[in-house]
Amino acid sequence: MKPMTIAGLAREGGVGVETIRYYQRRGLLDTPERPGGGTRRYGEADMRRLRFIRSAQAAGFTLDEIAELLKLDATDDRDRARELAVARIAALDAKIAELQVARASLARLARHCVHGDEGPCPIIAAFGH
Questions:
Q1: What span, in angstroms and rounded, lies between the C-alpha atoms of 67 and 73?
Q2: Domain assignment of residue 38, given as a range
Q3: Rounded distance, CA 117 to CA 124, Å?
């Protein structure tokens, strides 16, 4: 992979340039030097780091947690990494349970909507319209 500009890194990583800059301000991505005052160039390590950040976000980790995971990588503290993962799993399980309740409620409202033509729509009424 040949070195790329910030725009190239953003494009390849599926994010905007401002997202790259934000990650740099947060210390999640390094800001390369400008060789001879020219354009900063990003390489394979930067792309791997960006992909890690995006994958961790997709798993539900916050940027603070991602920063901690990146620091743990350097120390090989598997116990703490596992603690973070277990906490994230618990949070996901809670969210899944919440979504299942919401789905069941909406399905019940949709069934009531089908079986009645009189009065206000139960779906709209349930949301306090």
A1: 10
A2: 1-76
A3: 14
pTM of the model: 0.75
Farthest CA pair distance, the chain: 76
What one-character DSSP code corresponds to residue 116? Answer: -
Domain identity same for 56 and 99:
no
Given the structure tokens 């800001």, which residue do they identify? 31
pLDDT by residue (tens digit) across 65-113?
Answer: 999 999 988 888 889 999 999 999 999 999 999 999 999 999 988 888 8
Place of tokens 């090989």: 76
Q: CA torsion sign, 81 to 83 to 85 to 88?
A: negative
What does the alpha-carbon distance between residue 66 and residue 54 come to, in Å, rounded to a whole number? Answer: 10
Give phi and psi for 40, each to the nearest 5: -65, 145
Residue 43 phi, psi (nearest 5): -125, -165
- State the total domains in the chain: 2
